[in-house]
Design brief:
- The protein is built from no helices and eleven strands.
- About 0% of the residues lie in helices and about 55% in strands.
- By secondary structure, the chain is an all-beta fold.
- Strands 2, 4, 5, 6, 9, 10 and 11 form a seven-stranded mixed sheet that branches.
Amino acid sequence: QVQLVESGGGVVQAGGSLRLSCSASTNGYVINSMGWYREAPQKRQLVATITGAGYPKYADSVKGRFTISRGDADDTIYLQMNNLKADDTDVYYCNVDYKAPGGSYEYDSWGQGTQVTVSS
């Protein structure tokens, strides 16, 4: 099992910035990828993901504004959110996709979410 701890949410004015953090307790499992999701406008959907090799992927709506990155020495990812818009307001959920060492079956875990509120 992999557990996630999220932090960094808060309230900012439109045009401001926030930096979300998600730390994974891997318990010996191998992480394939980690990412951030949000539910608005309808279903939980991709914001940004990053693979174990460091390759990022972004939703079109956040390209050029958000940057996902990995910590240098631990299983932590960050989401730097710049030029925030009111439509970015949501609960942001960290996700990790992982497998057992030497295994091939993939699992995933979700964080409890961190609230991001962007005021007009």
